[in-house]
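Hey, weird one. I pasted the Laminin N-terminal domain-containing protein sequence into the form twice and got a warning about non-standard characters only the second time. First submission, copied straight from the form history:
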Amino acid sequence: MCNNECDATTEELAHPPELMFDFEGRNPTTFWQSTSWKKYPKPLQVNITLSWNKTIELTDDIILTFESGRPEQMVLEKSLDYGRTWTPYQFYATDCLDAFTMEPKTVNDLTQRTLLDIICTEDYSRGYVWKNDKTVRFEIKDRFALFAGPRLHNMASLYGQLDTTKNLRDFFTITDLRIKLLKPATGATMVDENNLSRYFYAISDIKVQGR
């Protein structure tokens, strides 16, 4: 998306990782950008790892804002032991069966009994037209609502469950978060091998709220 060739060694043409965490609202928008998919058909796989070196209890949705099209395949992973081991949080794909051999679901399919299930969703993997369609979410508040009600009026019920159910408390707790980008947006059924520079990942913002 550079007017010229992107160049990590030149400040005006660079898109380093810290641009995912700077102040939003600038014009033009700042963003991190990966290398292009030059080695197709070898997958263009990129990991983004966030480490806090402390325990974080998530209090709101995790929101990624893509300046490129949203990835066609992605996995959000979490660690509870400072990155030594990782478990999936959620899978994202345009076709969950094809990508991960999982039936597509949404957070609305979950119940109190199945809240801890790891699902694959197709809601966030299609191309975008408007600003709101640039985001990929991990819905924390919708999961809270299974105990606290749709408007989160009964937070006492949620906190009671978190205090007494270790597995539930651990589900909303992280020390590290990893975003595994597995396939960039192609916008078509066939990849244009003569124009591979158009396929890449670009993220302008990552929001993780917790305590």
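That's the output from the first submission. The warning seems to come from a hidden character in my clipboard, not from the data itself. The helical segments are 96-100, 140-148, 155-164, 166-171.
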